[in-house]
Amino acid sequence: MYKQRGPVVYVLDLADRLISKACPFAAAGIMVGSIYWTAVTYGAVTVMQVVGHKEGLDVMERADPLFLLIGLPTIPVMLILGKMIRWEDYVLRLWRKYSNKLQILNSIFPGIGCPVPRIPAEANPLADHVSATRILCGALVFPTIATIVGKLMFSSVNSNLQRTILGGIAFVAIKGAFKVYFKQQQYLRQAHRKILNYPEQEEA
C-alpha cells in the first residue's frame, strides 16, 4: 500500500502525465507546421524565380492572402506529382510497338525495332528509396533548371514566365530523349544477355 500523496505531488503527477500524452501530438503538429511553412516559402521563392523578383512580389502583394496560403504550398506538391509521371516509359513502349512502321526511329534510336530473344523484366522505379529521393530532388530543383535553360536558349524572349516555360519544356524534352535512348540500350543488353555454363576443369 502506497503512502497517500499530498496535493502538490498529485498536481505534479497529473501534469507529468498530461505532458507525456500531449507531447506526441505537439511534435506531430510542429512537424506538419514546419513542412507547411517550408512549402509556402518554397512556393513564394519559385514564383519570384519563374516570374521575376519584382513581378513576383507584385503578384503576391495583389493576391488574396488566403489564396497564397493555399496556392503556394501546392507548387512543390504539383512539381513532385508531375515528376512521378514517367512519360518516357510510355513513349518507349509505344515506339517499341510501332517502330517497325516508322523507319526514322531506327536511325535515331538504333535497335529499337529489332526483335529480341526474350523480354527482360523491368523493376519498379519507386521500389527503392534512391529513386524516391531522386524524384524529390529533381522535382524541387526543376524550376531553377528551367530558369537557367530558358536564359541560355531563349534569351531573346522578353517575358520571364514565357522564357522559363520554354526552358522547362526544352529541358524535359532533351532529358527525355537521352533517357529513352539509355533505357533502350539497357533493355537490349538485358534481352541479349546469355548465361554460359561454367567450364569444368579436367582432372589432372
UniProtKB/TrEMBL annotation:
It comes from the Eukaryota. The keyword Transcription does not apply. The chain crosses the membrane at residues 25-45, 65-85, 135-153, 165-182. One of its GO terms (cellular component) is membrane. It is found in: Membrane. PANTHER family: E3 UBIQUITIN-PROTEIN LIGASE MARCH5. This is E3 ubiquitin-protein ligase MARCH5. It comes from Marmota monax.
